[in-house]
């Protein structure tokens, strides 16, 4: 018997970033559907409010649809994460089972995201861990989150 499983080298994405806002406001930006629709997704993509659903409890879900702002961008897609841990206002852990196309792109059939929020004297230090990603895709994910966080900075400043 031979093993025909393709092994893909994977990497975990780790991002640390400090937001100039209290932890409770950053928490709300990650958990409130109205706010998620205002910042989630890299520049050039939007999340229509009517696509965002959040059932903020262990076993609940966070669903949304990311769409390109114009036809020159690659297509967006759905996100459907299940909450594994919820500790307000400091920890969100989700997993998402990937469809076949996304699994091929990311190099995994299940993506886990861990978001920690730490109070830093009225500011918030975020530690995001996400993966596994294929080594070839992890840089794209880093750029996407960075672009999204630029939009989040604007929302938090309002």
Task: Enumerate how many helices there are, as a single number.
Answer: 4
Percentage of residues assigned to helices? 25-40%
Which CATH C-level class is it?
Answer: Alpha Beta
Number of domains: 1
Sketch the topology as an H/E string, one letter per element.
EHHEEEEEHEEH
Morphology call: globular
Any guess at the CATH architecture? 2-Layer Sandwich
The CATH superfamily is known as START domain
- Beta-strand level of the residues, as a percent range? 35-45%
CATH topology: Alpha-D-Glucose-1,6-Bisphosphate, Chain A, domain 4
Alpha-beta classification: alpha+beta
- Please provide the count of β strands: 8
Output the radius of gyration.
16 Å
Distance between the termini: 61 Å
The profile of the biggest β sheet is: 8 strands, antiparallel
| Poorly predicted ranges | 1-7
Can you give the mean pLDDT?
Answer: 90
Q: Please, could you describe this protein's structure?
A:
Helix 1 (23-31) crosses helix 2. The protein has 158 residues and is an alpha+beta fold. It has one domain (12-157): 2-Layer Sandwich (Alpha-D-Glucose-1,6-Bisphosphate, Chain A, domain 4), CATH 3.30.530. Residues 1-7 have low confidence and may be disordered. Strand 3 (53-54) and strand 4 form a beta hairpin. It has helices spanning 23-31, 33-39, 100-106, 138-157; strands at 10-19, 45-46, 53-54, 61-68, 77-87, 91-97, 110-120, 123-134. It is built from four helices and eight strands. The termini are far apart. Strands 1, 2, 3, 4, 5, 6, 7 and 8 form an eight-stranded antiparallel sheet that branches.
